[in-house]
Amino acid sequence: MKKSWRKKLLPFLCLFLLAAASGCEGTKKEGRQKVRLAEVTRSIFYAPLYASIEKGFFQKHGIDVELKTVWGGDKTMTALITGGADIALVGAETSIYVYAQGSEDPVINFAQLTQTDGTFLVSREKMDRFSWEQLKGKTFLGQRKGGMPQMVGEFVLKKNGIDPHKDLNLLQNVDFANIPNAFASGTGDFVQLFEPQASLFELEGIGHIVASFGAESGKVPYTCFMAKSSYMKNNKDIIEKFTAALYEGQKWVYESSAEEVAKAIQPYFEDTELSVIEMVVDRYRSQKTYAENPLLDEEEWKNLQDIMEEAGELPKRIDIGELVDPSFAEKAMKE
């Protein structure tokens, strides 16, 4: 683990140990149990979650979701381990970082939301025939070092014969929120972007989508729902209901039209045109970015650690049984 993660997490470990003994018990409201959910960012990437809320699947299973966007993996994990949230939606790699600190109450992944990377390679110039070789010698505006987007980005570049630190002028000093603005103002020949920004740039003529990092990297537990081991032990029924509701949302997203999905989740993206939301949903569905069920399997877990290891960010290999509990997903899928 890099020092940046150590510095961010260490100040909260004492608070974590104090909070570990007591689960954040769900409170009942009108016969339903409240679950405080912290999401790492607000993104169409998470459409099945928002659909599950808007279509009433959580309420149907007796849960009221109190959703809060925390903006950042370190902040989301801090909210979880210090008792500010019951469940977190964040990259599975964060559970590995916490575990490597020697936690007595590890954070356990129990349901998967996205199963591929959600970023796209955007070129400033239109390319009718793109090849990865065309990146050599160019300025590449990448994502934050140590985060999953950048780790997957480097993994895909190496897979295609590109050494990101030798063959490119790699820029990683721009904050996540400012990357689109930096590219729009003229920085970089290529940029790695999430949706809907990639599609918006294409519509506005600022850039052109030439490749998908998700399609290139294969399946990986990119974003998962996780909770402290103590919370899961004390609130097994909540985790079961939460996972069952999520699975209904995942199925609904794939069984419904892109237009229906876009209309359902539009309240979460009021500043984005419905047609753009629909286009992004269709693109993510076509490459199976949204997990079709909540089960995180061993192959995906291995792929995650391979990507982290390749990037030099893996503290140590951890068996899937240590940080993943598939029983809730398996039960939801059976029922």
TrEMBL record:
Keywords: Signal. Residues 1-23 form the signal peptide. One of its GO terms (cellular component) is periplasmic space. Pfam families: NMT1. Residues 47-256 form the SsuA/THI5-like domain. It is found in: Periplasm. It comes from the Bacteria. InterPro entries: SsuA/THI5 (IPR015168). Belongs to the bacterial solute-binding protein SsuA/TauA family. This is ABC-type nitrate/sulfonate/bicarbonate transport system, periplasmic component. It comes from Caldibacillus debilis GB1.
